[in-house]
Amino acid sequence: MSALRFSAILCTALALGLLAPGCGDPAAIKAATLKPENERKTAPDFALKDANGKVVHLSDYRGKVVLLDFWATWCGPCRVEIPWFMDLQRRDKDRGFEVLGVAMDDDGWEAVKPFLAELGVNYRVMIGDDLTAQMYGGVDALPTTFLIDKTGKIAAVHVGLTSRKDFEDGVEQLLRAPATVASAGAGRPVGSLGAK
After folding, report:
1. Is 20 among the domain residues?
2. Containing domain of residue 124, as a range?
3. pTM as predicted
C-alpha cells in the first residue's frame, strides 16, 4: 500500500470519527489563513496532460486565482471536497478563478476518466506523478490543495479535509486582491507530461 493511499485511509477514518481527532476532523482543523504577500513563494510550473491529451502549464493561468488540488479517486476526503470545487468553478470562473485537479491515481486515466464522468467534474484534471508531487514539496497526504494568487504564488496550503468555508473565504480574498504585474507563461520549467 502506497504512503499516499495509507494517509488518505487514515484521514478518512479520522473524518468519520473512527479514530482520535486529527487531519480529517473538521472541528480539529485550524483554518489555513492566507500567507502575507511577501512570504509567498512562486508555485512550481508543470507540464501535465489533461483528459483530452492537451498539455497544461500552471503558468498559463497567471493573472487568475487558482485552486490546485492533488487528489485520487480512492481518497474519501477528496470525494467530499470535489463537489465544493465544482461549485467554486461554476460560481467564480467568470471572475478570474480556475480549479485544476492533479489526480495521483496509480491506474491513471483508466481509473480517473470514469470517476470524472460519474461526478460531472467541470474543471481541468491532469494525471500527476512523483515528480509533480516533489515539485510541491512532496505531497504526503491526499487531498493536498494549494491556493495560488494572481501572480502565481502560493497563498495557502490545505492538507487533508478542510472546511468548505476556508476554501470559499481564501478564494474570495484572493479574487478581491489587486493583481500585480505577472508575466503569463514566463519561466516554464520542464516538468512532467504524466501521460498515463
Report:
1. no
2. 30-176
3. 0.78
Do the domain assignments include residue 91? yes
DSSP state of 74: T
Q: Which of 27-31, 105-109, 111-115, 168-172 has the lowest mean pLDDT?
A: 27-31
CATH number where 148 lies:
3.40.30.10
Instruction: Please state the domain count of the chain.
Output: 1
pLDDT in tens, 10-54: 444 444 433 333 333 343 334 448 999 999 999 999 999 999 999
End-to-end CA distance of the chain: 20
**Would you state the cell numbers that stand for residue 151, as one nine-digit string?**
501572480
Residue of 102, 45, 34 whose CA lies nearest to 68:
102
Quote the CA–CA distance of 143 and 141 in Å, as a whole number: 6
- 70 conformational bin, left if phi > 0, alpha if psi -120 to 50, beta if neither: beta
Q: Measured between alpha carbons, how far is 161 from 2 in angstroms, rounded to an integer?
A: 19
* CA-derived radius of gyration, the chain: 16
